[in-house]
Design goal:
This protein is mainly alpha-helical. It is 47% helix and 11% strand. It has a three-stranded mixed sheet, covered by helices on one side. Strands 8-9-10 form a three-stranded antiparallel sheet, with no helix packed on it. Strands 1-2 form a two-stranded antiparallel sheet. α2 (99-115) packs across α3 and α6 packs across α7 (281-302). The radius of gyration is 35 Å and the shape is flat.
Length: 403
């Protein structure tokens, strides 16, 4: 890590030296007035006596503690000036710099950050923050305000400390990037090592529960369709109720999915809703579990139902989540999905859409719901609408929410 930082410092210093080899006078704006300032000798010491310096001339007056902000415009892009300020004492002039510096920095700083393996999502922000600080420090140095090896001046005024804080931020992202890369390697290896066991469990479930699967019911499709679409039957999704679980799956595991096969410990009761649905707790609980597992079917489907691909992705995600089941991104999505039709499945108003749909045998007329929730009309209290495949159903309810 130390070698990387030293190399990056050399890279940045070299870039800045090349960029500054041929700088010329630049107009600096302060309020409404402008002035052209000459270069100042680079090695003028601090004046602590009354004798003139042979190179730098007469003693420099004491530094005025009052400071003023100067805005330096970018001559390379006048329509979009660089937004930063240079703060210098009143009695000092600002040294020159030219558009070559900005042009060079725009190239070298992002390149340096990439070579340091900084997260690509952070490079743009770090570049925008770092370039003004670098220019500010260089401008102050060239103005004679201080020198890099001087303990006063820039260090006292915080210019180098601002650069230091920026570098510290860069280092933070370097460390995080390296840590992320190592974690990614660890989790890739973990997924590969666990792949045989995953596929063995897949085969075990299939062997232990052969020919016992059944398709989803119309009442289950009523809630599956708004979440995932109507591929349950075209993809031959099979649900195995009262399934025999393979060794290694504890009693707390209520459901497991491999491809288009869903294995549930619970039996096949309550797979069709009774009316009123609001009071059918057994169907509601089993449907939520089914919606969770069906989300995994959709995840398999998105990967072409190729079990090894899903297994590698799932186990790597489990590792990246700190070997935490709930934080695995595949499980996070499944838990979110099972809650997204709650108002239709358990709500006072929402459940009555299904009640009407079942009582009037509207499955052939309207098909399945396509929306995960019903619409309310603020200007029409007591009226609600749910979109279906073939039209929609509108409920008119009284003050007691009876529709």
């Amino acid at each position: 890590m130390r070698l990387i930082l030293l190399a990056s410092a050399w890279f940045l210093t070299s870039s800045l030296t090349l960029a500054h080899a041929d700088s010329s006078n630049t107009v600096i704006e302060r309020g409404a007035s402008t002035k052209s300032v000459p270069k100042v000798p680079r090695r003028c010491p601090e004046y602590n006596d009354d004798e003139p310096h042979p190179i730098c001339g007469p003693p420099r007056p004491p530094i005025d503690p009052s400071v003023h902000s100067y805005t330096v415009k970018d001559p390379a892009n006048p329509n979009k000036p660089v937004s930063f300020k240079i703060t210098v004492p009143e009695t000092l002039t600002v040294a020159t710099w030219d558009e070559t510096l900005l042009t060079n920095l725009r190239t070298t700083v992002p390149s340096m950050l990439r070579q340091l393996s900084v997260d690509t999502n952070q490079i743009s922000a770090l570049t925008s923050e770092g370039i003004p600080l670098i220019v500010e420090a260089i401008t102050a140095v060239q103005s004679g305000l201080s020198l890099p090896d001087d303990s006063s001046g820039i260090a006292r005024r915080g210019l180098f400390s601002k650069i230091g804080r920026w570098i510290k931020k860069v280092v933070t992202f370097i460390v995080q990037s390296v840590r992320d890369q190592l974690k990614d390697i660890e989790c890739t290896l973990f997924s590969m090592v666990t792949l045989p066991g995953y596929l063995f469990s897949d085969l075990g479930f299939l062997t232990l529960n052969a020919f016992n699967g059944q398709p989803t019911t119309a009442d289950q499709d009523y809630f599956i369709n708004p979440l995932h679409g109507s591929f349950s039957h075209t993809d031959d999704v099979q649900v195995y109720y009262g399934a025999t679980f393979a060794p290694g799956f504890g009693a707390n595991v209520a459901g497991v999915t491999f491809g288009s096969r869903i294995y549930l410990r619970t039996d096949s009761s309550a797979i069709s809703a009774s009316t009123p649905l609001l009071q059918d707790r057994a169907f509601q609980q089993k449907t939520k579990l089914l919606l969770h597992e069906f989300t995994h079917v959709k995840q398999y489907k998105n990967l072409g139902y190729f079990h090894p691909t899903f297994a590698l992705a799932y186990m790597k995600s489990y590792c990246l989540a700190g070997y935490n089941y709930e934080n695995n991104r595949f499980e996070v999505e499944a838990y979110q999905k099972q809650e997204q039709v709650n108002r239709l499945l358990t709500g006072v108003i929402g459940t009555q859409f299904m009640d009407k749909w079942k009582q009037n045998n509207w499955v052939s007329a309207f098909g399945l719901p396509t929306n995960q929730d019903y619409n309310e009309y603020p200007n029409l209290p007591g009226q609600y609408f749910l979109q279906f495949q073939n039209g929609g159903i509108q409920l008119v309810c009284n003050s007691a929410n009876v529709c």
